[in-house]
Amino acid sequence: MILTHTTPDTRNAPVIALHSSASNGGQWATLANDLEGRFCIHAPNLPGYGKNSLTVDASETGLASAASAVIAEILQHNRPVHLIGHSNGGAIALKVAMLRPDLIKSLALYEPCMFHLLRNGDQTDKDLFAEITAISDALTAGCSVGDPEPGMRSFLDFWNGTGSWDRLPDNAKRKFSAIAASVVSDFTRMFGEDWDIDQLKGLTMPTLFLMGMDSPQIAQRITGLVCNAIPGAQLALLPGLGHMAPVTDPKWVNLRLFDHIAKAERSATRCFWPLRTAA
Asked: How far is the C-alpha of 196 from the C-alpha of 185, rounded, in Å?
């Protein structure tokens, strides 16, 4: 689904939220409810997911092919936006910020998947890169022969914990298998990046990174690398939460997101916020 949530308070910059792989804009429904009355949130379906999904720009390579579509969405608002991204959506959001920093009022990323940064690192980084490459290769091989289920099992178990696939009902397994090719495309775009981490030093927008303390090592490693490279970026550590916390535990994630964008939107001397109607 494409999630659009309006608000009567048009003084505040809109929020654009980008979902993870194997998901859709609906994953941000709780965030839209939490921001109601304060911010308008738009959560498009990224390329390959759901109805009316964004279309990749075939003239671009890597994440820029998806980021270009997000930039076009932002331009429709005629003002800078608060940009949020999770996992693959976080990687695309970071690419948008690199390409058009003038369009971003604040940036908030939950474990962005910038895998290429590990390709030429130390041995630990190379081992992590090999691990995620193996998962991508298995998924790609399965899709090529019309049998994506084993690859999707490895993919979901990696990010959600061993046994996650087996606990899914059969209809959910079928739905995940049906979008396996889109996950492969996500991997292809992420692996297609080759920029150096020093290029992030020029980003100046207020930036928050969120990281689950129970997340896979690769997600924690990349989040730390990227956060350290952006001047003034803050890192919020979330005990007991994993890589999919924006979906499984949104109440803990959304509080951090609101605090970040609210501070970026208005200074402490202008901190009036619309009041919600009591239930």
From this structure: 22
pLDDT at 1 (0 to 100): 44
Burial of 272 per CB tally in 10 Å (0-12, 13-18, 19+): exposed
Q: What are the Cα distances from residue 89, in Å, to 46, 121, 165?
A: 8, 23, 22
- For the chain, list residues with pLDDT below 50: 1, 7-8, 269, 278-279
DSSP 46: P
Q: What domains does the chain contain, in order, with CATH numbers?
A: 3-115+196-270 (3.40.50.1820), 123-190 (no CATH)
CA 52 to chain CA centroid, nearest Å: 19
In angstroms, the CA 125 to CA 134 distance is 14
Q: Which helix (H) or strand (E) holds 210?
A: strand 207-212
Q: Which run of H or of E encompasses 108?
A: strand 104-110
Q: Which of 273, 187, 200 is nearest to 232 (CA)?
A: 200
Nearest to 177 by CA among 160, 156, 152: 152
